[in-house]
Design goal:
Chains A, B, C, D: Keywords: Hydrolase, Protease. The structure is a homotetramer. By secondary structure, chain A is of the alpha+beta class. Chain A is about 20% helix and about 40% strand. In chain A, a hairpin with an 8-residue loop joins strand 10 and strand 11. Chains A and B meet through strand 4 and strand 5 of A and strand 4 and strand 5 of B.
Chain lengths: ~280, ~280, ~280, ~280
């Protein structure tokens, strides 16, 4: 699938400071960046860096003067997510657990899985396989959590969403991750661009490690899991914020657009998503 | 310096389950394990694994039967921490920031640095260098937080300790980390063995990334930072728990002993620690 | 019903301080204290006070010297709780709401009903009457919260219990109260003595205001709601702690015993409790 | 002092529901309502009720139809706060403690004084009198907490403000109350109208019980404590919300105006406020 992405961000600063943007599409074995252009106005040198472990890509910008900084990122990205059916997924044995996914079992800033052990066992413990558990977590979230724009903020965590029963994509992903980790299923945060998201924005999903693959889940149901482009991977939103600023920086304006440009693309239906799972890595 | 370590752990289980122990001394460029013996009673095969990114070492044990499992770990470890004086530490420039330490700037489960920005700026923002800031954080914790055995539990976080003004080594480390990250100083959790710790136990410290080195700090003052052996490195205690269990496992008994066996070892004095900083990696 | 109560408390202090005990059985229209004896060793003058609004009774003790203070309270109490059947309870109209129960609709320290509106509406909002809602809250708690001695502490709240799915009587009461208030049903905390409680201790229940009566509910199921003696009434445990100390005071020992002394007393069965409700005021 | 108050509130509802407004000026021994007019459009019968314990005044409105409800409250209020100088305030003895203020020593929803004991003792414990302690709390808040409009929401508590070091009037009051209670000084929440508040809004202050009087403190410094009109008294904001709704109600618009109409009124200076304390009850 091929995507056309255009992101625009305006930041203002009152003094000299550095900030790190994480908005570029990842380059990995299943995702190719066919074209990309990163524009910064006023024009300035800036450093592009890629994290070797996660593959996340950063632009380090040092604003020397107070004022408005306009960033525009345009890209054409192609990816080939793998479609997996339930019958092709073997049981994950603890013995097979790779240590590089171990960190995705631990509690993180916004995913306090350490507190959800009893709840997860009560609700999902009787299900036989990790896959069925994740599907049940997805169904539980869809039934119990309301998507309410503006209802949460940067310090809202999975526990908050669980209690207050509402949130946005980031909160849905956090709750999914926290529940899975509480069930001993490695889970991580996915941030990216989603085809035709309404309203247009960056999007958050989560991935679970089942039978040596990361499967992608969108707990909000707003995006089709095959029609997303990965920007970053992390333990939770703390790891992949759009912008990490080393001083006071204000977001003045943001626009995001992402469209599949394959003429014959069809969104996956809920029925398909019950039997086919999508892996981006 | 050379250390003799003996750890004994008894766990009981009521059914089949796997658990992952993280009690072995790391092997790294500054720390050699001269001898070690890991004993498990009843005798059983178990897997030893090393995480390539962190260097943390794990033993994966699968208890097939209910009952009591006795673990004994004995080791002789030699390490050579580097002593650095303040004048040898250059300024860290944001431009030099290596991406592999970026994760140590982000908020984590027990270190909610995202909430402490204002407090950290108020209290420490006027200090000129990261080193002075960390020293001030250390002094602030020593002055304001009481070491109270048993006052906290597994879900206690840096914010809790900040509010309730008490904790144990783990909490002291979390608060130090959270404050440093809120000041844009990368910081991570260190768990290990400390010479002659009273009462004997595993110990927690923290490390800060300054001028391309990790410097070690013991916010409790109970250990000398040159007289510790690293078991593990992580974002916070969530990453380096002694035992990660995939099912209900009960710790029945624990004993830890660690002694420097160099006959002429002298503990560093508080005066020395104001001018000399210790790096274990 | 007539009860024999014996409570013993040993407190130690390291200096002069005052403390307020709240352990005496209330005197109210449905509860008579037939005999009582309050003993303090060493013997000292102390003030007995009764709160006019709540009826809670306090002993204000000023310990002039460091040392151990032994308190013994013995009482014979008779009460006559009213048995109400569902059909006798009319609908409560908001218009009839008495302002003196309004405070029992508001969120309190341990009962954050303000955060539970969505959850309560989802789970119980479809039920027609306040009585059915409270019964459903009781059933939900019984099904989802495990009684685990020692699992919580003095700062544990209803939200914590909801997330961690465990607690003791105090936590069960807090969660019941928080849920009811989130459903606009006035609810308050009841602390008292319960017949033959195992293990023996002070007990916590809650009351809901329905059709101009306070009905008593024991969410733990450990006590029979007709076989309890009220010590105190409050918004939550913050209001009716056994001891409010104006300085550092340590509880060294506690024993509580409460027995119905009517020879023919029969505990109410779960079946009875589905149709008959108990009001102590 | 005489005040002219005009409040306008527009609420919308999508169905039948009741709500309780708490916007009228209290009538008490130090405050007289000379004139008042309460207008509700569309015109409807509504119940006016006064809580006998607190003196808070409520209007219970039952909206029978979906739509917009416009409320206008106009009043002329005269009050005579007492000016007290430090030398006239005797020591409060615990023995004199009146039980009706006991509830103002306990932790409440937004004032978790139970968690602040160590911090309060560290920071303020050395001061000799309750008055000096409250003054030091006021100075600490002024120095450490930034007034930032929109930085907090309805579930923000004293602990949150303490950690994040920012808030609005409600948060300043909560933090003041929590600190005082942690110092064993009874404290309660005051909500009212303040002369010439910028921007115009309802205002929150707090009161402390010292030598048998409630003294009023505005931790934000935005209002002069002698130039306020009491609407309500409570444990914290949970008790005196402007509107308690028994169903989904949306605030569409709010305007508040309050002016002292005495021609010669002079705002108290910070210097005066160091020596003269104001009591409204």
């Amino acid at each position: 699938m091929t995507f056309k992405i255009i992101t625009e961000l305006d930041y203002s600063t009152q003094g000299q400071l550095s900030f790190l943007l994480n908005i570029r599409a990842q380059r990995n074995s299943q995702q190719r960046v066919l074209e990309e252009r990163f524009t910064l106005i006023p024009q300035m040198p800036h450093l592009e860096k890629t994290d070797e472990v996660t593959g996340n890509r950063f632009d380090l910008i040092t604003a020397d003067l107070p004022g408005l900084y306009h960033i525009r990122y345009e890209a054409v990205v192609e990816n080939k997510p793998v479609h997996v059916s339930a019958s092709d997924l073997a049981e994950t044995e603890v013995q097979d657990l790779q240590l590089d996914v171990l960190g995705c079992l631990y509690a993180s800033r916004y995913c306090q899985s350490d507190r959800l052990g009893n709840l997860a066992a009560q609700q999902f413990g009787h299900l036989e396989t990790p896959l069925k558990k994740v599907q049940a977590v997805m169904a539980w979230i869809a039934e119990h959590i309301a998507y309410v724009s503006g209802s949460t903020n940067a310090s809202t965590s999975a526990v908050d969403s669980l209690v207050e029963r509402r949130g946005v994509c980031r909160d849905f992903a956090h709750l999914g991750i926290a529940m899975c980790r509480a069930l001993n299923i490695p889970a991580r945060y996915f941030t990216g661009y989603a085809h035709d998201l309404q309203p247009p924005d960056f999007h958050a999903c989560f991935e679970t490690w089942i039978d040596h693959r990361w499967l992608l889940w969108d707990a909000t149901g707003l995006a089709s899991p095959d029609a997303v482009v990965r920007i970053g991977t992390g333990r939770d939103a703390a790891d992949v914020s759009v912008c990490t600023s080393f001083g006071p920086l204000m977001l003045e304006r943001q626009s995001v657009s992402c469209q599949v440009i394959d003429p014959d693309y069809q969104k996956m239906t809920p029925e398909q998503l019950e039997h086919v799972f999508i892996s981006h890595s």
